[in-house]
């Protein structure tokens, strides 16, 4: 019998990773209202937007306005993705609590996503980390395509280890390892985490699963067995990857919370308020969200 943790931290990435892949641009006022609802639901961490150039992700072109307008609740970390020094300046100006940097474990995806090779990316990110630390910000690193690349296929475990070690060497506080195209399975997660634990600090790792093939919750269970207790998720299962065709939504926060709470694992999140926040963004997007909990809620209302 496995010893499950008493508490798991769920980092909500819906306002950034969820909305960046939507075809419509959600109005600024609705983004702010949604983030405020998420703050009331009991999260301790919400990724609110991304300070990337609007040409690349027009859905998040109002990042500065959003960051300046949300109602900040004490005890909640409000984070944003930054691609470079210019993005960091905007994040600092709007007093974001934590900045996230990002890159891929596969070179081809990294070039498609950032327009640089992996080796060319490290100096850019190192400058961001250094400046962010000088500004008193914590820094998170995202490593995409850790379980598979849409262009290269399998990604070697030691390649992911190398990228993570370089990020930790820069001074990042946590690395989120991503299954960007949703190809991971429980056995693969077990094998890779077994290897990664040999070189990487397990208490500074988070997992970022996509549910493209319905494996996300199963992969969470395996990760829990390896003492991973931080997971990224998006309410309703929103999201995907703009540069990975067919990569459907993130692990759904509401499904994850349902599972964890019934296993006796605390998250600090209020399920009723989570439903209210999910219903709000579902109405804004005018579409049914893919999570199982949203499906149940929609049927109950009929």
From TrEMBL:
Q: Cite the GO molecular-function annotations of the record.
A: hydroxymethylglutaryl-CoA lyase activity; metal ion binding
CDD domains of this UniProt entry?
DRE_TIM_HMGL
Which GO biological process categories is it annotated with? Answer: ketone body biosynthetic process; L-leucine catabolic process
Family to which the UniProt record says this protein belongs: Belongs to the HMG-CoA lyase family.
Where in this chain does the record put each Pyruvate carboxyltransferase domain?
A: 8-275
Name this protein carries in UniProt: Hydroxymethylglutaryl-CoA lyase
**Cross-referenced Gene3D superfamilies:** Aldolase class I (3.20.20.70)
């Amino acid at each position: 019998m496995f010893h499950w943790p008493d508490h798991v931290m769920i980092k909500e990435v819906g306002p950034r990773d969820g909305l960046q892949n939507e075809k419509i641009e959600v109005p600024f006022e609705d983004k702010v209202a949604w983030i405020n609802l998420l703050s009331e639901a009991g999260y301790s961490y919400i990724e609110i937007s991304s300070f990337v150039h609007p040409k690349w992700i027009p859905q998040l072109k109002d990042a500065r306005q959003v960051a300046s307008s949300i109602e900040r609740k004490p005890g909640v970390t409000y984070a944003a993705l930054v691609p470079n020094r210019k993005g960091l300046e905007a994040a600092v100006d709007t007093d974001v609590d934590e900045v996230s940097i990002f890159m891929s474990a596969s070179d081809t995806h990294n070039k498609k996503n950032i327009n640089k090779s992996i080796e060319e990316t490290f100096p850019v990110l190192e400058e961001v980390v250094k400046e962010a630390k000088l500004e008193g910000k914590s820094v998170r690193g995202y490593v995409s395509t850790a379980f598979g690349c849409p262009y290269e296929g399998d990604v070697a475990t030691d390649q992911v280890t190398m990228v993570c070690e370089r990020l930790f060497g820069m001074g990042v506080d946590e690395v989120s390892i991503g299954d960007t195209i949703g190809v991971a399975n429980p056995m693969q997660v077990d094998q890779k985490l077994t290897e990664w634990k040999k070189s990487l600090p397990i208490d500074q790792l988070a997992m970022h699963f996509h549910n493209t093939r319905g494996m996300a919750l199963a992969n969470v269970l395996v990760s829990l067995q390896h003492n991973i207790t931080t997971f990224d998720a998006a309410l309703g299962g929103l999201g995907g990857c703009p540069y990975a065709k067919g990569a459907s939504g993130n692990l759904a926060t509401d499904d994850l919370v349902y599972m964890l709470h019934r296993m006796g694992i605390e998250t600090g999140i209020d399920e009723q308020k989570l439903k209210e926040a999910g219903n709000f963004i579902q109405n804004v997007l005018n579409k049914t969200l893919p999570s199982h909990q949203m499906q149940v809620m929609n049927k109950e209302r009929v």
